[in-house]
Design brief:
single chain, mainly alpha, ABC transporter involved in vitamin B12 uptake, BtuC, 15 helices, 2 strands, 72% helix
Length: 324
């Protein structure tokens, strides 16, 4: 039971940054903006979060710094893609490349420096419940924030007037503009929210997941977050399932590589045989499992074109120039 609980804890830790980045990108895309710079915003949040925590000695200020860094970095994308109406795909890719370069430059001084860990919030009595106690009642604050954001965004999008305005801009920015809605302002706010969430996800990596700064430590998680939005068909609650599914795949390949077959001889022969086969697979292939799973999921979703078209914001990726 202890080993199983430890695996689940690592799955939760791996899923949290994906969930934070994906829920932010969902809001951005719901406004009709396709920001492929999630990876860049995450890595900027990671280096800023680590730096702020080191300078202040307070990991909570580090998390706040990561969130602010992601939001500010997203403003560059918003200015180019919304104000100057540049190509959103090319601008997002450039943002990722810029973020990876800047984070490597600014984070050089922090390589090998011990991190300031964001400690778990232990809820008395509840945290002592077998199995679920440590999983749900002894986690860091970003875990609880990520879960709360999923339900808050779902409520905002489908139960509030502001959410209706956001979705209307994403579905028909021309009609929204004709009704007097400031399309650019709505999109700026959506992009900044997405950047703040991505930055917070990056801060989780350097303050909780590894508690150190490593260049390029996001390792493609921003791209997985983008795929999660499509996997969830732009529905917030489905992102919760997707993030933990991909988190489990990420952790699975790590545990398979470290597996000791002699400790599994008690298992039934078919299961033991399967474990033996997985153990014999090269570690490089196992490390690619999260990204292979991303490709497989996107291929399967694209086969159901009707479902994809129903939920996809109609104006996704299209710039808007108001009539004068």
């Amino acid at each position: 039971m202890g080993m199983f609980e430890a695996i689940l804890l690592t799955v939760f830790a791996a899923a949290t940054p994906l969930l934070l980045a994906a829920i932010g990108e969902l809001v951005t895309e719901r406004s009709g903006v396709l920001n492929l710079g999630v990876e860049g915003m995450m890595i900027m949040g990671a280096v800023a979060g680590f730096a702020f925590a080191q300078i202040t000695g307070n990991p909570y200020l580090g998390a706040l710094g990561g969130m602010v860094a992601g939001a500010l970095f997203s403003l560059l994308f918003a200015f180019l893609a919304i104000t100057l109406v540049t190509n959103q795909v090319a601008t997002g890719l450039a943002l990722t490349i810029l973020g990876l370069g800047l984070s490597g430059l600014w984070g050089e001084a922090f390589i090998g420096v011990p991190g300031v860990k964001l400690t778990p919030i232990v809820i008395p009595l509840l945290s002592d419940i077998p199995l679920i106690g440590r999983l749900f009642f002894a986690q860091d604050i970003l875990f609880y924030v990520s879960i709360a954001l999923v339900f808050a965004v779902s409520w905002f999008l489908f139960k509030t007037k502001a959410g209706l305005i956001l979705r209307s801009v994403g579905d028909s920015h021309g009609s929204a503009h004709a009704l007097g809605i400031n399309v650019a302002r709505v999109r700026y706010l959506a992009v900044m929210f997405g950047g703040a969430c991505a930055g917070l996800g990056g801060a989780h990596l350097s303050l909780v997941y590894t508690t150190q700064w490593i260049e390029n430590m996001t390792a493609g998680r921003g791209w997985i977050a983008l795929a999660l939005v499509v996997f969830a068909s732009w529905r917030p609650l489905r992102i919760l399932l997707g993030a933990y599914l991909f988190g489990a795949i990420t952790i699975l390949q790590l545990h398979i590589q470290a597996l000791n077959l002699s400790d599994l001889e008690f298992l039934p022969a078919p299961i033991y045989g399967l474990m033996s086969v997985l153990k014999s697979i090269p570690s490089q292939f196992l490390s690619s499992l999260p990204y292979l799973a991303t490709i497989v999921v996107l291929v399967l979703i694209s086969r159901n074109r009707r479902l994809t078209l129903i939920n996809t914001p109609a104006m996704l990726g299209q710039g808007f120039v108001p009539d004068r």
